[in-house]
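User: Okay, second chain of the day. Same drill as before: sequence in, structure tokens out.
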Amino acid sequence: MICEKCGSEVETVKCVHCGQEVIRLGPHCYHCGKELHVHAEGETDNTDFDNRILCSDGACIGVINEHGICKVCGKPYTPEV
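Assistant: Same drill. Structure tokens below.
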């Protein structure tokens, strides 16, 4: 699909719930509001909110990735002493 603002090609996906071809703007379909990605049989969401490490920058809302870097601001994690 071509973006009407910039004219470049944009990624689209067909919603498995409503069948509409939508631009991938986020995790949900903007026609029906349901999640675009449906987990396959046996696939789980590996988000573990109890064990996440929050960014050590007090002004940031990000979490630390597996490389020790904040996913939002990009700063390395510095543990409290």
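The CA atoms of residues 16 and 35 lie 9 Å apart.

User: Thanks, on to the next one.
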